[in-house]
Write a structure and sequence with these properties.
mainly alpha
């Protein structure tokens, strides 16, 4: 969930592009992993390569249109996820509808490492998470990352300086989709199951709440927000069915006390 929230922050916190359809990337990667695994492709690295080779190209081509940036338009409209969600529900011969795709096994790393035990898979997930954090740190602290923040602050000024703003926005969607896809892949391997809920709007909303709680525009803010929400879901839901009410209270409290997110407290303390 932290990887998923950080991928959304590429758009929201660093480029200034609000998106309510981010679950589409997560869900497409999850279903692609499920199809590949059930078809006999067990090698984790091969699954990742196949998805990365096809995913960014597909996202880029489908986002193009004569009027300009269709994907940027969709970022402001929840309807962006209606098509994959409809396919997942209605194309039962392929997706089995709301019954989903069960029986997805743990990946094979090709190194003689057995990931079937939960503890080993946990360490594997932590390793992937750390790699993603390092990759995002390098990406967001590169000239590309600074350009995205420049677009967020003043798009017209960046255009005046000669930057191809539309191209950078496209690239931000591509990178956000790649990292969101990684989170979808890991979740499918963890749960061993995928169904249309992976495209649900509330998943995109949850990621957005993670950003707001932790603090958008920073690398570790989404991580903190994800930790809070997942912790509340697992702990509070064991005591009451109204855990979402508790989450709402926490959300309102954070907004009232720390308008820039909880991570802003750590930044102030450091300064």
């Amino acid at each position: 969930m932290a990887i998923f929230a950080m991928s959304l922050d590429i758009l929201v916190g660093h480029t200034g592009l609000p998106s309510m359809g981010h679950a589409a990337y997560y869900g497409v990667a999850a279903y692609a992993t499920g199809f590949l695994c059930l078809a006999g492709v067990k090698n984790f690295w091969l699954v990742i390569v196949l998805e990365w080779v096809r995913g960014p190209r597909r996202r880029f081509l489908r986002s193009s249109c004569p009027e300009g940036s269709r994907s940027l338009f969709h970022a402001h409209h929840p309807g962006v996820i209606s098509s994959p969600l409809g396919i997942a529900f209605k194309w039962r011969s392929l997706t089995r509808g709301d019954d989903g795709l069960p029986g997805i096994g743990r990946p094979d790393l090709g190194l003689g490492i057995n990931l079937k035990p939960d503890l080993y898979f946990y360490y594997f997930t932590v390793a992937i998470f750390l790699i993603v954090v390092v990759a995002l740190f390098i990406l967001l602290n590169s000239p590309f990352g600074y350009t995205l923040r420049g677009i967020r602050e003043s798009e017209s000024r960046m255009k005046a300086l000669g930057y191809p703003v539309w191209l950078y926005k496209y690239a931000s969607f591509i990178f956000a989709g790649i990292f969101a896809g990684i989170s979808g892949v890991l979740w499918v391997y963890y749960s061993g199951f995928v169904n249309p809920s992976y495209f649900a709007v509330d998943l995109s909303v949850k990621a957005l709440l993670m950003l707001i709680l932790g603090g958008s525009g920073s690398l570790f803010g989404p991580l903190i927000g994800a930790g809070i929400i997942v912790l509340l879901e697992n702990l509070v839901s064991g005591f009451t069915e109204r855990w979402s009410l508790v989450l709402g209270i926490v959300y309102v409290t954070v907004i009232m006390l720390f308008s820039e997110g909880i991570f802003s407290v750590f930044k102030r303390g450091r300064n």
